[in-house]
Specification:
The complex is a heterodimer of chains A (118) and B (116).
Chain A lengths: L3 E2 L4 E5 L4 E3 L2 E2 L6 E8 L6 E7 L7 E2 L2 E6 L4 E6 L8 E9 L10 E2 L3 E6 L1
Parallel strand pairs in A: 2-12
Antiparallel strand pairs in A: 1-4, 3-9, 5-6, 5-10, 7-8, 8-9, 10-11, 10-12
Chain B lengths: L4 E3 L2 E4 L5 E6 L6 E7 L6 E7 L2 E5 L6 E5 L5 E5 L8 E8 L11 E2 L3 E5 L1
Parallel strand pairs in B: 2-11
Antiparallel strand pairs in B: 1-3, 3-8, 4-5, 4-9, 5-6, 7-8, 9-10, 9-11
The chains are: A mainly beta (118), B mainly beta (116).
Chain lengths: 118, 116
């Protein structure tokens, strides 16, 4: 079974609008972390935002926020005021277990290609 | 502050050959992980090295092996290459951390391997 599901293969958004990228996850471990990465055409994966399973508040990092709904097992990424430079692939990923030594394995979804239209 | 660097950036091999990819972690990091990203897919975890030992391994055959050196740099070796090994190979580094840290991985730009 897929542990990370991203159902939007591609999205087109007008510049300056907000966009929500969907991510659902599946785990039986009560301790986990959820990540969003951006991958431009250069190939490098750029870390955007993190949400821990025990975090009480939704994570925010500048224009990025994570809409964490634990009961629904969803962790959607919201980008406010989109910019042309936001055009890229976006991946949701999960680490099961606590963030300690020997447990850096991330499981990624298939990604969403976001295109910002001028 | 140097980020994660990988070499070579692109290479072409034929079936049955062997390949070695190299990675230098971000300054101050001591753990290296390798991921395979096939075209149109998300990265898949191959293995992780810490203190020169393989600590975790994903669902990859023994043809995939690695090494970590005392300076924390790492190599990924793939033997008996198959067409299906064509992919972007990403190296990621991190620091042994506690539960207060997000533990995000820092990735390099990858090595794109084409097997003909």
């Amino acid at each position: 079974a897929q542990k990370i599901t991203q159902t939007q293969p591609g999205m087109f958004v007008q510049e300056k609008e907000a966009v929500t990228l969907d991510c659902t996850y599946d785990t039986s471990d009560p301790s986990y972390g959820l990540f969003w990465y951006k991958q431009p055409s250069s190939g490098e994966m750029i870390f955007l935002i993190y949400q821990g399973s025990y975090d009480q508040q939704n994570a925010t990092e500048g224009r990025y926020s994570l809409n964490f709904q634990k009961a629904r097992k969803s962790a959607n990424l919201v980008i406010s005021a989109s910019q042309l430079g936001d055009s890229a692939m976006y991946f949701c990923a999960m680490r099961e277990g606590l963030s300690n030594f020997g447990n850096e394995k991330l499981t990624f979804g298939t990604g969403t290609r976001l295109t910002i239209i001028p | 502050d140097a980020g994660v660097t990988q070499s070579p950036t692109h290479l072409i091999k034929t079936r049955g050959q062997q390949v070695t990819l190299r990675c230098s972690p971000k300054s101050g990091h001591d753990t290296v992980s390798w991921y395979q990203q096939a075209l149109g897919q998300g990265p898949q975890f191959i293995f992780q090295y810490y203190e020169e030992e393989e600590r975790q391994r994903g669902n990859f055959p023994d043809r995939f092996s690695g090494h970590q050196f005392p300076n924390y740099s790492s190599e990924l070796n793939v033997n008996a290459l198959l067409l299906g090994d064509s992919a972007l190979y990403l190296c990621a580094s991190s620091l042994v951390f506690g539960t207060t840290n997000t533990g995000e991985l820092f990735f390099g730009e990858g090595s794109r391997l084409t097997v003909l």
